[in-house]
Design a protein that fits this description.
Layout lengths: L1 H34 L10 H136 L5 H16 L1
Helix pairs in contact: 1-2, 2-3
């Protein structure tokens, strides 16, 4: 409403100024126009005076009609346009704020996703290292068990081979003693000597 009143005042001022200017111009040029032979500007003629008066009245009525009907409409249009512009600016500011918030949310979500991805990568790497260490321990245990079994089997084979060698050595010694001396030797003595010799070699 204050906008409409301001518009009316500005329009009233802009309309009154031309009226005064026209009146002053008529007063200045009346004498020269009368001297030049223009009877329509001869203010000594009552008809000319009434024409000027009615022209002023019509102009005043037209001004009053415009100030009462058209000017408020113009003011309301200007107010509506200003309100619409302010609303558009407010909507633009709200949209910008929403976009800024969305960008901030996106950045936070991206940082959170990067942190979660890094945590998942670290967890997978730790699981892989633990699984590799477990497989290595299992493999070492299996290899140690296989090595122990192989050593035990080798010891058994060696013991069996040494037993067979003892028998072969005792038989060979008995045969050699019998052939050299022509007398059969005592098997217990020969086996004792063979065991002593084998023990000395294994030591």
């Amino acid at each position: 409403m204050r906008g409409a009143t301001g518009v009316n005042r500005r329009l009233a001022a802009s309309t009154t100024a031309p009226l005064l200017a026209v009146g002053a111009l008529l007063a200045v040029t009346a004498s020269s126009a009368r001297a030049a032979g223009m009877p329509q500007l001869d203010f000594r003629n009552p008809l000319t005076i009434w024409q000027v008066v009615w022209g002023a009245v019509i102009f005043l009525l037209l001004y009053l009609v415009l100030s009462r009907s058209a000017l408020p409409r113009v003011a309301s249009v200007l107010d509506a346009r200003r309100s619409r512009i302010e609303g558009d600016l407010e909507a633009a500011r709200s949209a910008k704020n929403g976009a800024d918030r969305a960008i901030d949310d996106l950045r936070r979500a991206r940082r959170r996703a990067a942190a979660e991805a890094q945590a998942n990568i670290d967890r997978v790497l730790n699981d892989a290292r633990e699984a590799a260490a477990l497989r290595t321990r299992e493999m070492n245990d299996r290899l140690e068990a296989e090595i122990a079994a192989a050593e035990a089997q080798l010891a058994q084979e060696r013991t069996r081979a040494m037993g067979a060698m003892r028998v072969v050595a005792a038989d060979t010694a008995l045969l050699l003693v019998e052939r050299v001396t022509g007398q059969p030797a005592r098997r217990g003595l020969v086996e004792m000597r063979v065991d002593a010799a084998l023990a000395g070699r294994t030591a």
